[in-house]
Write a structure and sequence with these properties.
The protein contains 11 helices and 16 strands. It is α/β, with parallel strands linked by helices. The relative contact order is 0.20.
Length: about 400
């Protein structure tokens, strides 16, 4: 089913789908707070006749549709619903109405595309078996995939395979990119809390444990993890994203507590363990230079996302049918972004694909997680066409 074949069908409700996407964009909700979004998704699914279950992993929604042809196969299609803690700067008429909240990763578009596919397939369920449309909360680091799995997602909605998609700004509009094996990195976070005596920075700095020097030593040492501990053929990232200590109102006071936090990325378990170990060791060594202490906490929001071989081929065939050979990259480079869909791929065979969101007329593309980003509505038909093709291809039944 090429995009040209689906266009006449989707154009009947594309304006409504765009309006829905923009409505979700205007009302962003953080992970495990998706009350409005989940209710909207459930209402639309029910209105199209799908069996709909709410509250899976607190805010997850699953719509179930059975094909008109006999068949026992079942697959899951997943979209994420949450937004980010970011202040929008797009100036759009449908921009965020919630201060400090923004759909800066395109989850509004992911939700809209999967809803569009559910509607189209409900109108013409010409397939054999069952499709579960999985709308997941809290992808951005708040454990949404794990919560749905712990709530019995695949026991309650059995799937032979599960599939996911993410938009990618800068990739040509309507093109698809994926690869077998590792596609996205495990995404972790760490926090090092340094504690000392504190003291008077002007009168008696020699009597204090200088935590500012501790954090300077620590941050400098972190830069050597990738360059000197990680094999050259591996890909690892360690970055600092937060430093807090002391107050602007008391610039002459040396802090008694200072916090440094950041992110870590790796594509396999040995590299995850290496990064964890080195961060911990370096924090403790830096603290020891000033007679201070270090408390370190670490956690992984997502494990490495690894595409299964058969399901990657299934996705590639669907993308090829929609976008043609020229619109498909089956050997895209792995990215160090994290994605908790990896937990679903750990539980079931499946694969994940990137959908090209194109560029602006001037050739620019605002990156994901940017306050200037907005999902490109022109990508909606391509995503809907892909999901519909995948269902009809996977659940074709016996000829």
């Amino acid at each position: 089913m090429a995009i040209e074949d689906i266009q006449p069908q989707i154009e009947r409700y594309l304006p409504e789908l765009i309006a829905l996407r923009r409505d979700i964009h205007a009302h962003p909700e953080l992970g495990m707070e998706e009350t409005r979004t989940a209710a909207l998704v459930a209402e639309r699914l029910r209105s199209w006749g799908l069996e709909t279950t709410e509250g899976i992993g607190r805010f997850g929604v699953v719509g179930t549709l059975k094909g008109r042809r006999p068949g026992q196969g079942a697959i899951g299609l997943r979209a994420d619903m949450d937004a980010l803690a970011l202040t929008e700067q797009t100036g759009l008429a449908y921009g965020s109405t919630i201060p400090g909240r923004m759909h800066a990763c395109g989850h509004d578009g992911h939700t809209a595309m999967l809803l569009g596919a559910a509607r189209m397939l409900a109108e013409n369920p010409d397939f054999a078996g069952t499709v579960h449309f999985i709308f997941q909360p809290a992808e951005e680091g708040r454990g949404g995939a794990q919560a749905m799995l712990e709530d019995g997602l695949f026991e309650r909605f059995p799937c032979d395979a599960v599939y996911g998609m993410h938009n990618m700004p800068g990739v040509p509009l309507g093109h698809f990119a994926l690869r077998k094996g590792p596609l996205m990195a495990g995404s972790g976070r760490w926090v090092a809390t340094f504690r000392g005596t504190g003291g008077h920075g002007g009168n008696s700095p020699h009597l204090a444990n200088d935590l500012t020097l501790v954090q300077a030593i620590f941050i400098q040492a972190l830069q050597g993890i990738v360059s000197r501990n990680v094999p050259a053929r591996e890909s690892v990232v360690v970055s600092v994203g937060h430093i807090a200590g002391g107050t602007k109102e008391s610039l002459n006071v040396m802090p008694a507590e200072l916090v440094v936090g950041g992110t870590m990325r790796a594509f396999n378990a040995p590299m995850q363990a290496l990064v964890e170990g080195r961060i911990r060791e370096l924090a403790e060594l830096a603290a020891a230079t000033q007679g201070a202490t270090a408390e370190i906490s670490m956690w992984w929001n997502a494990i490495p996302l690894v595409n299964h071989e058969r399901e990657t081929e299934v996705m590639a065939a669907a993308a090829r049918a929609v976008a043609g050979e020229a619109g498909l990259d089956t050997a895209t480079q792995p990215v160090t972004g994290g994605e908790d869909f990896a937990f679903m791929l750990q539980a079931k065979p499946g694969a994940f694909v990137f959908l090209g969101a194109g560029v602006a007329p001037d050739g620019t593309a605002h990156a994901l997680h940017s306050p200037l980003y907005d999902f490109n509505d022109a990508a909606l038909p391509h995503g809907v066409a892909f999901w519909v093709q995948l269902v009809r291809q996977e659940l074709a039944g016996v000829a």
